[in-house]
Amino acid sequence: MKEQLEAIQSEALEKIDGTNNVKELQEIKVAYLGKKGSLTGVLRGMGKLSKEERPVVGEIANKVREAITDALEQKSEILEQEAMEKQLEAEAIDITLPGRQVKVGGPHLLTSIVEEIEDLFIGMGFEVREGPEVETDYYNFEALNLPKGHPARDMQDTFYLTNELLMRTHTSPVQARTMREFDGGKPVRMICPGKVYRRDTDDATHSHQFTQIEGLFVDENVRMSDLKGILDTFAKKMFGQERKIRLRPSYFPFTEPSVEMDISCKVCGGDGCSVCKGSGWIEILGAGMVHPNVLEMAGYDPEKYSGFAFGMGTERIAMLKYGVNDIRQFYTNDIRFLKQYHNA
């Protein structure tokens, strides 16, 4: 039986060494160490041995089992390692290949213009304020010296949601809300950018929804000359130091006196061309001194406080600065158009 055990060991080790397959290795294990395996069959015959032979054969059998088991484990580790290396090699990434270019977007042109204007006015001591786009009739009209029935309300052509709620037609309600918040107790220096809505037919220069930036400065001894200085600084920063401005008399219910501001045409330098329709000037915004009624309704004493306000269309500023000839291009999401201004 001793010779039989040694033969089983030699045969098993030879087969283990010669296999390169995990499945075959498992079959070898079953063939020699399983319930019906060669070694198990020999051990079952130990009952026929004498008492003296059993310990000797049992010791040999244990050594054979250990030798086969160790060989199986070592071979299993080798095969697993080889399988892992093959898998890694098959899944390897070729880092010599050029990478796929990642397309990076940029801010929308209107966003860039708004941020540029905000930075300019923040540098002059203004703060940025926001308000609701769904506004009350009171703040959108009445608090701005436009009582019910006032003919200037028709200029706005409003989207009404109810008798008292509407889509704001300008960002001036933010000014009225801010003054009411301060309750006539401290100066105001603010700008308010945001979307506004009007019943208008969309074309190259009009849109039912567009963006405004309005400003307000209320304090003691505020004069028209302060307004002109602020607007002159704005025009030169936005359109170039060579730009000149002029103020023309106009009418707005919430300012008195009211003015329209023009800048000298950058195409012709003021000589007259098709862009400025031969005048040499281009209108860009409206402004004026805050009407005493507006100050009084917000809690400010018009005998003590004065102020100025101005409002501009962001799209118009962008169109003039970058030569865009159709306001609809800002909203059609044409990537070819938008990509031109990623670094604007």
SSE arrangement:
Blueprint: H1 2-18, H2 22-33, H3 38-44, H4 53-90, H5 109-122, E1 127-128, E2 134-136, H6 137-140, E3 159-160, E4 165-167, H7 172-182, E5 188-197, E6 209-220, H8 224-239, E7 245-252, E8 255-264, E9 281-290, H9 292-297, E10 305-313, H10 314-322, H11 335-338
Parallel strand pairs: 1-5
Antiparallel strand pairs: 2-4, 3-4, 5-6, 6-10, 7-8, 8-9, 9-10
Helix pairs in contact: 1-4, 2-4, 5-10
Proper CATH architecture of the largest domain:
2-Layer Sandwich
Helix/sheet category = alpha+beta
End-to-end Cα distance = 94 Å
**Chain-averaged pLDDT:** 86
Low-confidence stretches: none
Count of domain modules: 2
Q: Give helix % range.
A: 40-55%
Major sheet size, sense and barrel closure:
7 strands, mixed
Family: Belongs to the class-II aminoacyl-tRNA synthetase family. Phe-tRNA synthetase alpha subunit type 1 subfamily.
EC number: 6.1.1.20
Enzyme class: ligase
Catalytic activity: tRNA(Phe) + L-phenylalanine + ATP = L-phenylalanyl-tRNA(Phe) + AMP + diphosphate + H(+)
